[in-house]
Amino acid sequence: MKVLDVAMGAEIGSFDLPGGALNTALSPDAEHVVATGPMGYAVWRRSDGRTTVRESGAWSAAAAWADGTRVAVASGRRALVLDTDGQELWRTEPAASTVTDLAWMRQGRRLAVAAYGAVRCHERHTEKPVATYPYVGSHLALAVAPTGRWICSGNQDASIHIWRTRDGGELTMSGYPEKVSRLAFDDTGFWLAADGAPDVTVWDFSGKGPEGTAPRSLRCHETVTALAWRPGAGGHLASGGADGTVALWHATAGRPQARLRPARELDGTGAAVAALAWAGSHLLAVAWRDGRIRTYGVPSRTAL
Question: What does pLDDT average to over the chain?
């Protein structure tokens, strides 16, 4: 794997992960990268290029940073919390099946772990869960509102399941034509973007939440392959598709059931978009599955 300077595109480091990578996560201070894959995980340190590789033989699907000092990685049926040297600080008890996604809550004081049949929440250094949110099915993606009010899972059964953390209230949004494998809350926690259809769906979680409402639909791609909210509260979303297109949206404009068109489309390569990432609010990095990477300058929040 290569680590690039986002502004110049120059390589600033590289490391190997046996078996390849399924997920990467950059620390908030941009000083460390964690990569997870089918054979284990690796932690890379920018200051000296040191790489700590753990070939556990366990499927490691996801990683999530709590802050600049702690990162959670999925490792088989457990979640492990590591320091920046890759040393284990604590671990959860085994889940019923392989951990598929992770998310931090309460400013890094609680960890949500998704596996078949439930999302389980662990306090720091607590092996057993302190809260369990059951749902019979395979969770593919996990998103927690920054407010901590909502936990959402995207599922193999083509649905989004939602738990209200205050009282455990539940809601399922079903009827997607495909499995839901990408979910993303914006910084306010009021808007959730999801794949699972040719359109990106954007649900309104303000007020009492999305129950009884319809989403906004963003029409551009044949199949959605990447989602990334612009940092801040402007309601701007970037999306990528299997046809290589990249679109920028005023994603919270219009009324429920509105079908929106992109505010701007970016030139692609023809290969499927593999990942999107914002560097601040004015630079968007795009990676395609043919190995090409580009960065795009994006205008101010009032215009795309």
Answer: 94
